[in-house]
Specification:
This protein has 265 residues and is an alpha/beta fold. Helices cover 32% and strands 13% of the residues. The structure holds S-adenosylmethionine. The site of S-adenosylmethionine (SAM) has 20 residues, from helix 4 and strand 2.
């Protein structure tokens, strides 16, 4: 009997997708090694074959170049579900690094028909150039606009003009420095409509170490800024989490924490 020829299957179409990342040793894949996460998160299972192939290629290339500082599965799952579940069509991101969040938000916004749906700023020219190239490769240029610049610069281009209206969601993941985060909050929150949201990554006690000025980082900025701004309500997921915490014991698995602010008046 003739053996049936196996079709040529590129690795990215094999079942399992990110499950193999459970055995990858690099720290960037920490989420996949947790006790309760032996499955493909919806963040990845919702992608088309081509989108997943793009993301796999992106992991490979950024890994080779040592450009690894992306946000993670818990935070990005929350962001994309928030956008997709609520028809949020105007998103601003402060800090895109080499493009992980821009690609994943781009896939979500493309599925929603938002063009452009994301306006994203980063101060690093190499990061902007790399992100643009991968957005082109992913055919997301109609959905994501990349700008190079300081995310706290009042002269930075007007996102509302690009997006065709006030941003509904602002994702802050940039310098992590106390003073710069205050400047970002002061610059961007007046541009939100009532109900608009700000998510700030790295808002935990643990993540205060990411502040290059060692002044208390995002956590201190939120703690001091929020009480002085009654037009905004907020809470911080995992704000209390300190260095040495056991990730398996956390309900929201990102020890870096996430500030969630909403304009209420
Ligand atoms: C943690 S990375 C962002 C990761 C990204 N959100 C992702 O998921 O892939 C922080 C980024 O903030 C950028 N950044 C730092 N200071 C900045 C500033 N003043 N203005 C704009 N971007 C800044 C850095 O260049 C870096 O690319």
């Amino acid at each position: 009997m003739l053996a049936r020829a196996r079709p040529e299957v590129p690795p990215f179409t094999l079942p399992g997708r990110s499950v193999r990342l459970r055995t990858a040793s690099h720290d960037r894949f920490w989420w996949h090694r947790l006790e309760s996460t032996d499955y493909v998160p919806e963040l990845y299972s919702n992608l088309s074959h081509r989108e997943w192939a793009v993301l796999e290629g992106w992991f490979t290339q950024t890994g080779r170049r040592g450009r690894i500082a992306e946000i993670n599965v818990p935070a990005m799952s929350l962001v994309t579900a928030l956008v997709s579940g609520n028809g949020i069509r105007r998103v601003v991101q402060l800090g895109h690094y080499y493009g992980y969040s821009a690609l994943l938000l781009g896939f979500t916004l493309r599925a929603m028909g938002a063009r452009p749906g994301l306006f994203t700023i980063d101060i690093d020219p190499a990061a902007c150039e790399f992100t643009r190239r991968w957005l082109e490769h992913a055919r997301l240029c109609d959905h994501v606009v990349v700008r190079e610049g300081d995310s706290a610069d009042p002269l930075s281009p007007d996102a509302a003009a690009v997006l065709g209206g006030l941003p509904e969601l602002i994702l802050v993941d940039s310098s992590h420095s106390y003073a710069h985060t205050l400047a970002e909050l002061n610059l961007w929150t007046p541009r939100l409509p009532v109900g608009g949201l700000v998510l700030l990554h790295d808002a935990s006690e643990f993540a205060t170490a990411f502040d290059p000025s060692a002044e208390g980082g995002v956590r201190r900025a939120i703690a001091e800024w929020l009480p002085a701004h009654p037009e905004m309500a907020g809470l911080t997921l995992n704000g209390h989490v300190a260095p040495g915490a056991d990730g398996n014991a956390l309900v929201y698995k990102d020890a870096c924490g996430l500030g969630v602010l909403q304009r209420v008046r």
